[in-house]
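Q: Joint fold for the lines below.
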Amino acid sequence: MASIDAKATTQEVEGEPPDRSGVQLPVWDSGSAPGSDVHGAQDENSPPLVPLQALDELWFQVSGTVCNLRCHHCFISCSPENHSFWFMTREQVARALDASESLGVKEYYFTGGEPFMNREMEGILEDTLRRGPATVLTNATLIPERRARALARLRDGSRYSLELRVSLDGIDPEMNDAIRGEGAFHRCMEGVENLVTHGFLPIITCMRSWPEEKTDAMLASFRTLLAEVGYHRARIKILPPLLLGEEARRSRGYEETERVTHEMLHGFDMGELLCSRARLVSAQGVHACPILLDAPSARLEDSLEEAVGRPAALAEQACFTCYMSGSICSNAPAGGGWESQ
Amino acid sequence: MKSEGASEAAQPRAPGEGELPGYTRVAAFGGVYSNHLALAEAVADARRRGAESLLCLGDLGAFGPSPDRVFPILRDEGVDVIRGNYDDSIARGLDDCQCGYTDPADNHYARISYRYTFRNTSQENREWMGRLPSHRRFRLGELEVLACHGSPRQVNEFLWESTTPDHFLEKLAREHGCDVILGTHTGLHWSREFAPGKWYVNAGALGRPANDGRTTVTYPFLQARDRDLEVEFVPVAYDHEALAEEMRREELPEEFVETILTGWWTTCLEVLPGKERARGRW
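A: Joint structure:
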């Protein structure tokens, strides 16, 4: 991992431009952020608070914790038997979509579990794409040709983008299925091929389970693999592991020192954190972050309208990964907080 | 035109603030990316059409050759210029262009472009860019226009056609107090009347083609009809082969030259949403 200081500045350029001493992007110091007390200070003994700057992203836990796979790295331990969060109905989603319009939401994301386990998923996407762009985070094992065709129809019927984000964690069955379960690799590749055949350019996301220095070689291998199913201009996103749930058992949990402290936020751009511009809606309420679905500290309110007034607390150790890596959950980088309100 | 604070998001005008300059025909230029040949053609075209004001929305450098060549054109022709994220980076000597790429290939080309542009921009021009306003306001007929680089709230925010909902634009117009939002940053032009009497116009770019397989570049010509707005996206043909030659002489990447000669983007594709990406070749 990079040093903690690495997030506070933009990327280094060797040699030139010269003389950057003291030059940094203007940043939002948490000490003067809205949500702190009238003197701009937060209680140092409580977790740091992140106010919502704008509700740019609205996430839906649309299939709860129900998934057709049992991945060994799942940060909320989803499986066919995990019913702790249940499916959202089309009506529940539509209510939040209605509320989202007056809040000026920019993008909609759907996650789970496996979103296509929700039988109303296509209808939910139809409702969403009337209002704005939609992204579905899927394992692609439930995308037969018929579904890919239906999704293409929804995409072509909307002025907004429909993105499919496909989780694939290895370049062959041996590597992928060790994490995602037997047979997952071939079923996923079939789903990817069906999507590509119907004109999609799915974003392939892969949790980095190898040393960082091997990333370039792994990216090249992924490109070769995807080209074999006709995907020649693959969009690939490598994600850092989140040391929660099953992944904590598979590799390791967070060290006690891996927490976000008040001190770490001095000079840090809060716009890098997803909780400064997103909320997650589940069948059971509104949460600060899609990673922290089952963390009580991250459950904010019953309704979206109430939840937008509540800051997020950086109380969980997973917040450390977001702090170090930026908003890994969004499709595109946030672009930093320069000049953001 | 009225300029605003150098590094703050655009605030709504307070009651009683002075009159804004008013026009009926305005030409707006998106990212120039050092394409001085296209800029000169676009300025001439806009003058022929009777533009009363020429406005450049920033990102003067990047991608193309000899960045200092665009500045005399902008000054001599009286173009009102807004500071883009690239201009801000070059002016302040930041480490990168603030486009926020994470893809290794995109970063590779962005770094080449940034280092070249930084090295070849004079100190005088850097300082000039540092003094540019981040926003401008003016009247077009009866409409109040807020011109910015990325969005009224963030200089490097991408507003793509396929990922920008109407209600989001309504919020921006409401919070920043305007009828028309005029921006660039994406390099792809588009416009939409997102609510009755409210428009968003993305000027696209003069610096490179619109990833459509054509070698022309584009700028919007805006005409007021009382409270109505007419937006015409004008294709500008210029000597793109001469530009390609200049780029090769400056040893800029052949991938950049290919874009100028074919009309297809070859780099910095990571940030494109699926719909826009699918329309291109790469």
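Q: Anything notable?
A: Chain B touches chain A through 52 residues (CB under 8 Å). The radius of gyration of chain B is 17 Å.
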